[in-house]
Specification:
Elements (H helix, E strand, L loop, with lengths): L12 E2 L2 E2 H10 L8 E5 L5 H10 L2 E5 L4 H11 L4 E4 L9 H12 L5 E3 L13 E4 H10 L3 H5 L3 H5 L4 E3 L18 H14 L7 H10 L14 H10 L11 H13 L23 E5 L2 E4 L4 E4 L14 H12 L9 H13 L5 E5 L2 H16 L3 E5 L6 H4 L10 H4 L2 E3 L5 H10 L4 E6 L11 H11 L3 E5 L11 H6 L5 E4 L10 E5 L1 H4 L16 H15 L2 H22 L6 E6 L2 E6 L8 H13 L2 E2 L3 E2 L7 H21 L22
Parallel strand pairs: 3-4, 6-8, 11-21, 13-14, 13-15, 15-16, 16-17
Antiparallel strand pairs: 1-2, 5-7, 6-7, 9-10, 10-11, 12-18, 17-18, 19-20, 20-22
Helix pairs in contact: 3-5, 10-22, 10-24, 12-21, 13-21, 17-18, 22-24, 23-24
This protein binds pyridoxal-5'-phosphate.
The site of pyridoxal-5'-phosphate has 13 residues, from helix 14.
């Protein structure tokens, strides 16, 4: 009854009864539930709930409001439950079949906790968690953190318990459907569902999904909410916002001094260079990595959210990949003639990626984007290219940016950028040089989601102007799914480029696509010594196998949602929500730092980076998740973010926040996105 967002919600009227009655009725219909117990608080405000339970002959237990874990434990103990199925009373569309499915999974006996909420493949509002009494008891005994006491199963999920997630046979995209009742507008939504469907007898989530497909207008009035918002808030409340000590980076500095004499720029890759981090605070040289973590040359440990600039999709030194590569190396890996692994990997990619009929390999993303452009030029007999995003270091692309030193002017003039989600900017470009464009190359998405119809619009425009559409999936492959963003977004290009995560850090990339276009590779020159190096191909086959046969991508997605939501909730708690925003798809999110006018704020970015770095997190501004980031890493990150947000909240009103910077500010990379 005491919900702050919607007081009295559980007893609100829904189709002639209190909402709680519908939840109880639905749960009672589950075949595998022995007893339904309402666990409410001992506050007088909840008396109506207890009275309702008495009238309806439903068992009711009353306990602590804040220590909900204790309330659950005491209720389960009193009722001598050997297993507890947790359902919340604000889910009036809970489906008994889904409850049974999760219970059935739990009853297999290989886990302590089964649920359908570690990764949402069901609509939010069918949440079912099942756990053993002994696990509940252990949590009750061990959990000390107030957040763990308030959010009953948090300790179960983040601890050392064996957990499994049950997935829907009709998976829905994360965040697409929210059927819990948090606000009055949510109840309005559920009322409409009940009034549409009640006449047709009992209905479950499949009937609701079907109805919403036919009547998307029914969901329009709902307020957007964040799962686990209360938890992120309580972490923020608990944070002390204390100043963290600087870590020693003396050895990094020594290597840096040596490097300056022999390596121009001191780094082989722009984004890994010292200018991208607050110098004096950040490490410059790393020594080793394992899983989600790295250690710098001074011995400092970090959770790494850069992951080699995305390649390490399974984390550093993944054992299975290392073994596959070692076995190949023992048999040779740079051969004098082609090797069967090239064919096997090409076959696998054509199975997985919608546009892929034939494949050629490379080592870097830049190899294959350059290959795609040369192929498109040869195939169409045209020279111009329209681009959108970043596509590598080669002349054809980098000439279109402000960092075009060393690129002949004639080459620079051939590539021009258009704006994402702005079809008119592409149309204007294509019309300016009619019949001259060989290709439209773009990142199908990065942090900005495509507006409805945008990608199909690009494809239609490109084709209408006789140009090929090339998707640069160097970053989206394979975090956005094994079929790349093209599969997720339902638009198939003529050619596509993959790289980065393909080999979990081993150098491998590919250009693939329509067979008639790909055959042009037999006529152009696309050839280099290491393109057929097969240790990296052994790595790629192993990476694809792991991604296909484990829940790696699902866990990364769930962690992505958690980090994004946590940043946004904590920024709001800190009064920084107009300055710090985490945007993008759960697979790859970006934290944006701005001033109150919305202009990029490099000082805020630097302060954030400095503070997370001092507390053991290595990052630019994105969450480059790997499957090796586990619950422990995420929890540590959330606690760090809470501390850092609280610290920044105290600094940002200072007229000179730069005085809190403990090193040299970062230098911006030229802008292309
Ligand atoms: C979208 C995109 N395309 C192409 C490239 C170039 O790849 P590489 O640096 O492996 O040559 C990158 C690299 O960051 C990229 O992000």
């Amino acid at each position: 009854m005491g919900s702050s967002r919607f007081p009295g919600k559980t007893m609100s009227e829904l189709a002639g009864h209190p909402m709680l009655r519908h939840v109880a009725d639905r749960v009672k219909r589950a075949r595998l539930i022995d007893r339904v117990v309402v666990a409410t608080t001992d506050h007088a405000a909840d008396d109506p709930i207890a009275q309702f339970c008495e009238r309806e002959a439903i068992a009711c237990f009353r306990g602590s409001e804040s220590d909900v874990l204790d309330r659950f434990y005491q209720a389960a103990r009193k009722h001598e439950a050997d297993a507890v199925v947790r359902v919340t009373a604000d889910c009036p569309l809970i489906d008994p079949e889904v409850v049974d499915k999760v219970v059935e999974r739990y009853e297999k006996g290989d886990c302590d906790y089964a649920c359908n909420v570690l990764r949402y493949t069901y609509p939010d509002g069918l949440d079912t968690e099942v756990f053993s009494f002994t696990s509940l008891e252990r949590s009750w005994r061990e959990a000390k953190n107030p957040a763990d006491r308030e959010h009953v199963t948090l300790y179960l999920v983040n601890g050392t318990f064996r957990t499994v997630n049950v997935e829907s046979e009709i998976p829905v995209p994360p965040g697409e459907y929210r059927w819990t009742v948090d606000y009055p507008s949510d109840l309005e939504f559920v009322r409409k569902i009940y009034s549409e469907l009640s006449g047709r007898g009992r209905f479950g989530f499949k009937e609701v999904l079907q109805l919403l497909k036919e009547r998307p207008d029914l969901a329009a009035t709902q307020t957007e909410v964040i799962s686990n918002e209360g938890y992120y808030k309580s972490l923020y409340d608990q944070a002390r916002g204390e100043v963290a000590p600087k870590r020693s980076v003396a050895k990094s500095q020594e290597w840096f001094a040596r490097s300056q004499k022999v390596i121009p720029g001191c780094s082989q890759t722009f984004s890994k260079g010292y200018t991208q981090f607050v110098q004096g605070v950040a490490p410059i040289f790393l020594q080793r990595g394992l899983g989600s973590r790295v250690w710098d040359v001074d011995g400092n440990e970090y959770i790494d959210y850069i992951q080699g600039l995305l390649p390490n999709i399974l984390g550093y030194a993944n054992e299975e990949v290392t073994r596959a590569v070692s076995e190949q190396i023992a048999e040779g890996h740079s051969f004098s003639l082609p090797h069967p692994l090239e064919v096997q990997l090409a076959e696998k990619l054509t199975e997985l990626i919608p546009c892929a009929e034939m494949v050629r390999f490379g080592k870097n993303g830049s190899d294959v984007t350059a290959g795609a452009i040369r192929a498109a030029r040869a195939f169409t007999g045209r020279e111009r290219v329209a681009c959108c995003g970043y596509h590598g270091w080669q002349d054809w692309y980098i000439g279109s940016t402000t960092r075009n030193g060393g690129v002949p002017a004639a080459v620079c003039a051939l590539t021009e950028a258009f704006r994402y989600n702005d079809l008119a900017s592409l149309e204007e470009l294509l019309q300016r040089h009619p019949g001259e464009f060989a290709a439209v190359i773009m990142e199908p998405t990065n942090f900005e989601k495509p507006a409805p119809g945008f990608l199909q619009g690009v494809k239609d425009l490109a084709h209408r102007h006789g140009a090929l559409l090339v998707f640069d999936e160097i970053c989206t492959g394979f975090r956005f799914g094994l079929g790349g963003a093209q599969k997720l977004l339902g638009v198939t290009p003529d050619l596509a480029c993959f790289g980065k995560a393909m080999g979990n850090g081993f150098p491998i990339a590919c250009v693939l696509g329509r067979a008639d276009v790909m055959r042009v590779f037999t006529e152009i020159f696309y050839s280099f010594t290491f393109a057929g190096e097969v240790a990296s191909m052994a790595a790629a086959l192993k990476v694809l196998e792991i991604l296909e046969t484990t829940d790696s991508l699902a866990r990364m997605e769930a962690n992505g949602i958690t980090l994004q939501d946590a940043v946004n909730v904590m920024a709001r708690e800190a009064g920084l929500d107009r300055r710090i925003k985490c945007v993008g798809w759960p697979y790859w999110t970006l934290i944006q730092f701005t001033d109150l006018e919305g202009n990029e704020s490099s000082i805020l970015k630097d302060l954030f980076q400095q503070e997370v770095m001092k507390r053991g997190i290595l990052m630019h501004t994105t969450h480059n998740l790997s499957a090796a980031h586990d619950n422990h890493d995420i929890q540590q990150t959330l606690e760090t973010y809470a501390e850092v947000m609280k610290t920044l909240a105290g600094w940002i009103e200072d007229p000179k926040p730069a005085r809190y910077l403990e090193g040299t500010p970062t230098k911006p990379i030229f802008r292309v996105r």
